[in-house]
Amino acid sequence: MDLFVINRYDESKPEIDSKSREEKILEKLQKKIKNKKLKKDDSFIIEDKNSIKEEVPIEKINEEKSEIKDEENVSQMEIENSESSKIKEEMHEVEQFTVLGEQKFEEPQAIEMILPYWLANPEILKSDLSVPGKAVSELNYINEILRKNLCTLKVKNLFPVQEKLIPWILNVNKKPIPFRPKDVCVSASTGSGKTLAYAVPIVQHLIENKVECKITALIMLPVFELATQVAQVFEKLCNNLKVRSLLLSKHRDFVNEQHLVIEKTSDGKFNSKVDIIISTGGRLVEHLFYTEGFDLRSLKFLVVDEADHAMSQVHNDWYHHLIQHLGIKDELQSNRLSYRDLISLVKDDGSFKIPQKLLFSATLSQDPEKISTFNLFQPKLFTTTDNKEDLIKYQERKLQENQRGAFIGKYTTPAELKEFYTITEYKLKPLTLYALIKKNNWRKFLCFTNTIETSHRLSFVLQMLFGKELAIEELSSLLPVKIRQRMLQKFSNGEVNGLICTDALARGIDVPKVDVVISYDFPKLIKTYIHRVGRTARGGNQGIAVTIIAPDQIKYFERMIQTANKQKVQEIKSDRVFEEENALNFANAQKKLRKALEIEEKERKNVSKPTGLSLFEKLQKQVKPIETNTDIVPESWKIENIKNEPINQKKNFKMKDKKFKKNVSVAN
Ligand SMILES: Nc1ncnc2c1ncn2[C@@H]1O[C@H](COP(=O)(O)OP(=O)(O)OP(=O)(O)O)[C@@H](O)[C@H]1O
């Protein structure tokens, strides 16, 4: 019985010829290579002399190949090819492993975002302002004087966002403890009336509930101009009412401002003199640190306007200081609180230690990390859209478990806005802009650039081109605040026709009836675009937005427009004949600009020691010789505008805390 078999070398078997074995292998290889080639070369791309790619059918190539190659050559090449393909295969295997030190970057795949439930399921409001909402005169839940004050603001009917939010905010704040009002996020298009949507319920709440003067509402804004604008709205709303609002302003003497906020009684107590504070981050922190008796612990409403801006300002730590001031532990800021925790947040007077947070923006961030900055409590999102596609998406999403993509109405622009773009060469941008303004007879326009330098130069060139026909001014953060305010005022009342500015003005600024917004420089972010174009078509008025783009920017512009789900952006053509006719004027204007800039450069070099002058002041000085010309130049290029400006206002604030303690008035 054979348990196992051992194969031994058998001399009787004929030895296979090693040569014929090699030939067989070679044949096999050749076949394989041919098959592979046939599969690969369905079409073969060759380049001609002019490097234009041409598609040549496979048959033709094979024919050509067979003419050139004899059999020997072919087999030789194929052997080489087989070797190289082997090497390639081996290489491919090696590529499966990460080689340390090798630099190989693969483009990361975009990750689709899954929205949290509250972002994916917003309450959708209409964005069309042409349909009149509820008449203010019929709003029984609003105080009569407040209604009159609304009329002085020319508000007769509510806009959709106001119609929804005013009663909603009032109602949730009427519910008894332990009911805690949800925090609110509002993403509504520019000019849709968000300011009144939070201002009216706050004033009404104070009318109904105010017992003594305490800081009950804090309105936070990113820039001073915006804060001023909102403060004006509150001032008008509070007219003839026992509700006090105050703008905290870094341009006011700090000690004086302290006296406007609080007073010290004869028994050493501090009383608030205001109910509503409107502020920017820096000034609020100054008061939190230096104003004795500045107490925000009775705060009921915290409004963050332009909330996405506040979220992206990582260095902006006002919120952190505010929470510290309120003495709220981190764990109590959580979204899910036990009943006991909730009760621990209730103060003796029956109100909550944490104010209701109301976040407003036209481009609200949906980045979870950013949103978490504000530790929102059971947030509720309100958005506006009339876009049918958006609404269908919304219905579909409701049926899905995982809600993906951007939330509905994220980038809604006003229905009254008409958007255009125009294509021109980089060098010709000022001339194209001039031609567009002239040919379309635009008389009130805002023009956005990406840098202060561009604003400075463009305002000069445009004014040279228009001469006395139009007044062009520049508005940038380099200018002292008083000049900025004056410029805005002049622009508002029509004394200035065109304002050239940077994005410092893009957010929230409300100038009535701007005809056109021009993006002279391509905006880098969709958010910037939305805020820029939102300076026109406000409050239900018609408006036009034009973006000037260079040929190589078209694809970026298209991509940006797609992100915002816009289909109606049309091309507007500039009059090339007009441009040609004015080419000489343009060249002259540029010559003058070069001269002015040369003087500027010289002046900069001359001032080597620190002079206490701001860059703006230096800029003004260099243009002095230009004033002797008969040309009109933008005010920002004249020296007299800055003569009366205090050079460093911050000096006034030194030792303010000590001064305050000494100077605080004693109430009788
Ligand atoms: N109900 C209303 N009726 C008429 N005009 C209104 C009404 N509500 C607001 N307005 C006006 O509409 C303009 C835009 O309002 P507002 O500045 O509040 O817009 P916004 O939504 O805050 O815009 P942005 O996002 O650009 O800051 C203002 O001039 C305001 O006075």
UniProtKB/TrEMBL annotation:
Keywords: ATP-binding, Helicase, Hydrolase, Nucleotide-binding, RNA-binding. The keyword RNA-binding applies. It catalyses: ATP + H2O = ADP + phosphate + H(+). Residues 416-585 form the Helicase C-terminal domain. Pfam families: DEAD, Helicase_C. It is an enzyme of class 3 (hydrolase). Its EC number is 3.6.4.13. One of its GO terms (molecular function) is ATP binding. RNA helicase. The Q motif is unique to and characteristic of the DEAD box family of RNA helicases and controls ATP binding and hydrolysis. PANTHER family: RNA HELICASE (PTHR24031). This is ATP-dependent RNA helicase. It comes from Polypedilum vanderplanki.
